[in-house]
Amino acid sequence: MLCQHIFFICLFSSEEEGVLQVRPVKCENWFLPCFCKMMSSEHLTCGWLQQLLLVLVKLCFTFAGPLRPLIGTECTAKSPASYILVFTGHWSPQAFPKQYPLFRPPAQWSKLIAVSHNRHFRLWEEGAPASAGVQSFAELGVTVELMKTAKEARKKRVVGAMYRTAGIPNGIGHSSTEMLIHPRSSLLSLMVKVIPSPDWFVGVDSLNLCEGNQWKQEVTVDLHPYDAGTDSGFTFSSPNFPTSPPENITKITSQFPNHPANSFYYPRLKDLPPIASIRITRQSRSRDHQTAMSNHILPNSISPRRFSATPLDCEVSLWSSWGLCLGPCSKGGVRHRTRYILLRPANAGTPCPELEEQAECVPHSCMQLQ
């Protein structure tokens, strides 16, 4: 932008103080080094400087666009805060009965990857393309590229720390880690891969744990599945089918993608139930009161949240072609056609219709029995 390269030299008379006021003016993501407001034009050293100043300031505000204040994004707390992050999976056959993975592999969660950072870093972002690290993690559960990116950003002081938890071998379960969050990196982003899946994950993008100069005491977030946009598989066990060109990261809902084959397609539901959640609780920094719950699967003493069972309607194939007519050609013969069950109903869903149908013969499709 024009104003990124403008530096004003504000000249004023030494005979009277306060003739010119120098104020920083924020335009989008830059700062005008000085804004000179003339109290009395006769005190400017050069008349042409006054005119040049006015022209440049007008151009600045013309091209800068609307101002976007950074209210709420900067943390002014005086000290870091200690937190415990608990991830809970709610992926059950009752809440998500359609194509629920029972083996090879069964429903489970990958390790959790979390990063504390400031507003100049994004681990992932809905509506944006997946980075190479996000793609590798969402498709394969490999963390190498993600951690490499975070470590490089840490050298630039835009990332504070990186955390991870153990994976969970079931759809329902808990894992946790301790975190020390500093004011300069008060935002938290995390990802957990849905296993098995083409490129689906749950996560949080830039959750701010600080409000002004105060740390939040507890935060709970329900998590829903996202599609990384790098694989076009529709079901949990779909084979590798790269999306070309890659698409942006999108949220998966009960009706998007709008295809009956999709494992999360539940047209009777307005919203999917949460497939997972996180709870972030601030802890005392005293060693005597610190709860030791780092990087392990929590015992079942923590009761999982209960959700109402999701009804799953029966799905059947199209009718087959009519078979040949059996019986007398003129009268009394019958022909048959069949269909088969694609998806059995569950949780009081619509039952399956008849799978076989018969009708009277027509002369041209008659077959005499010997």
TrEMBL record:
This protein's GO CC annotations: extracellular matrix
Q: Which PANTHER family match?
A: MINDIN1 (PTHR11311:SF33), SPONDIN (PTHR11311)
Under the heading InterPro entries, the entry gives:
Spondin/Thrombospondin_T1, Spondin_N, Spondin_N_sf, TSP1_rpt, TSP1_rpt_sf, TSP1_spondin_dom
Q: Which intervals hold domain Spondin?
A: 71-260
What are the protein's UniProt keywords?
Cell adhesion, Disulfide bond, Extracellular matrix, Glycoprotein, Metal-binding, Secreted, Signal
Q: What is this protein called?
A: Spondin domain-containing protein
The subcellular localization recorded is: Secreted, Extracellular space, Extracellular matrix
Q: Which gene encodes it?
A: spon2a
- SUPFAM superfamilies this protein is in? TSP-1 type 1 repeat
**One MF annotation (Gene Ontology) recorded for this entry:** metal ion binding
Mention one GO biological process in which this protein takes part, according to its record: cell adhesion
